[in-house]
Amino acid sequence: MTISTLSLAMAALVGCGDDEPPNDENKSCSVQAQTGCGTGLVCEEVEGGEPTCFSPVAFKGKVVNALDDKPVQGARIVARDANDAAVSPVAISAADGTYTLHVPAKRNAEGKPLPAKLTLRADASSYQTFPVAPRIALPIDVDTATGSPPVVQNASTDIALVPLQNASGLGSIAGHVVADEGVNLVPAGALVAAGGSTGIVDFDGNFVVFNVPVSMSVDVKAYAAGLQISPKTVAVEAGKETGNVELHITGAATADVSGKLSIVNGNGFSATSVVLALEDTFVEDVARGEVPKGLRAGGVTGDFLFKGVPDGKYVVLAAFENDGLVRDPDTSIGGTQIVHIEVAGQNIALAESFKVTGSLATESPGKDGIEEVAGTPTFVWADDSSEDRYEVRVFDAFGVKVWEDLAVPSVSGSKTVSVAYGGEALIPGMIYQFRATSIKDETPIAQTEDLRGVFIAR
């Protein structure tokens, strides 16, 4: 299997789906309860009409080991919407790595799925979760399903998982999230964290967190905007699953986190995003962590506000996504430090404004998406024009630095800067990222974006 068949690659184009006439035998069905339909049918919403029974839309794909293309059995795959809410039950990959995942698909009057985009998350024992920054999940167009029953199967439905460097001494935690009596809130899509690892709550309220370090006391916590979920402490044994862990939604999370940012020398870019990343998942060297559902503010030009933030410890990250902007790397001035907060029911107004600036444009590899690189990579980025020198660092998929050159000379008469990788041999199939920073008077003044410069060694 080549990278073109994996979700690491750009999504392949597929043809339009065949129209499917509504099933007229039973139109009295429930989308929420999934009742009222015959065997092999599901109840779907219909634009301008009543819910009706249809053959389900399915995503089909294969989960493989990124380093050797061997199939991964037992991976849990869930579909998520644009807000990272889980919208499907879980599919489990078979011995050959294949899976079939039924996803919701609102229909038009003729029964054809309407345009909608979903992404996939996959978790497996002894593998890194997909997606974890700097990897991103490519959106899958539901309305491109073809055949009867309708199926989407393309590059974006195949998933390559990166194996952990050391999977010994790890266990797993399985359970479900329920709402207390009188609490009418839904947990689907909540992020469950335990021992630095995470899992996602599926459409049915179930979760599994793989790769949890062994301990007699592991706190299991779940996070999503608007939900206050009580934690639980459990024991984890190596190679075993701690099961039947029940977490309870006790009510609505009501805390607000507010702040402000200023964009200076944005190179024509005027809006960015801010996220609250879980501190338990934060990797300091690459300044990234996992973000629970609903804890992202987009289109920020100045003030930002997160509502319904659940209790927990977070890292506030500005300009984390690919929008031409980055957090100003000059930590000697105000508004550039990474901010850690702890929410315990109270509103938090961040005292200092974040300073955001234009990024150094990444040219290759990984300008617009993950790229394959054979042999020794050469890293290319736009010249800053006012720098004394550059620093370039290379990290693997786990955020571990594998090489750096802190004395890349400035250039004259060129629009770009190039430097060849000079470290130990890269591991075939491993995902890497390079980051470049310009230095003036021994002070960082600009850098490449957080999610660009990503490549796969071949």
Q: What can be said about this structure in brief?
A:
By secondary structure, the chain is mainly β.
What is the overall silhouette?
A: globular
Distance between the termini: 13 Å
Q: Largest sheet, if any? A: 6 strands, mixed
Quaternary structure annotation: single chain
User: What is the CATH class designation of the domain at 255-358?
Assistant: Mainly Beta
Question: What does this protein structure show overall?
Answer:
Among the domains are: 170-252, Immunoglobulin-like, CATH 2.60.40.4130; 255-358, Immunoglobulin-like (Sandwich), CATH 2.60.40.10; 362-457, Immunoglobulin-like, CATH 2.60.40.4070. It has strands spanning 42-44, 52-54, 57-65, 76-80, 91-92, 98-103, 117-123, 140-141, 151-152, 159-161, 170-179, 191-194, 197-200, 206-213, 215-223, 227-230, 232-236, 241-252, 255-264, 272-278, 296-300, 303-309, 312-318, 325-327, 339-343, 348-349, 354-358, 362-364, 371-373, 378-382, 389-396, 401-409, 416-420, 431-440, 443-447, 454-457. The chain is built from no helices and 36 strands. Strands 29, 31, 32, 34, 35 and 36 form a 6-stranded mixed beta sheet that branches. Strands 19, 22, 24, 26 and 27 form a 5-stranded mixed beta sheet that branches. Strands 3, 6, 9 and 10 form a 4-stranded mixed beta sheet that branches. A hairpin with a 2-residue loop joins β12 and β13 (197-200). With 458 residues, the protein is mainly β. Residues 1-19 have low confidence and may be disordered. 0% of the residues lie in helices and 44% in strands. The two termini are 13 Å apart. This is Carboxypeptidase regulatory-like domain-containing protein. It comes from Polyangium fumosum.
